[in-house]
Amino acid sequence: MQILTDGRHLVLRGDFDARSTDRVRAVVYELLETGDDDLVVDLTDVDSVDLTALRVLAVATRQAARSGRPGRRLQLRGCNGAVRRLLHRSHLIRVVHLERAAPVPA
């Protein structure tokens, strides 16, 4: 798992599973503590993901909402079909925020 940060964006690459959750959790919480804007977690280049990994992001989403800072959210970007299906089957879709795709210019 490769973890890259660019300001308020966290880009994950590789396999996001139980083996990498501790590292991702540490970075997510550090970024949530240091900023006042939304944190975007980009999953575009994630090859595979498991339920344990998605739970880490769901708990962090709730933590961000409970922080008491207005406008603070954790958003997921680049969720492929497999990630979306897992979010729906696990009901975590009710907890996480998916970034809306930008409209395609006509």
TrEMBL record:
The lineage of its organism: Bacteria, Bacillati, Actinomycetota, Actinomycetes, Propionibacteriales. This is STAS domain-containing protein. Coiled coil: none annotated. SUPFAM superfamilies: SpoIIaa-like. Transmembrane segments: none annotated. It comes from the Bacteria. Residues 10-106 form the STAS domain.
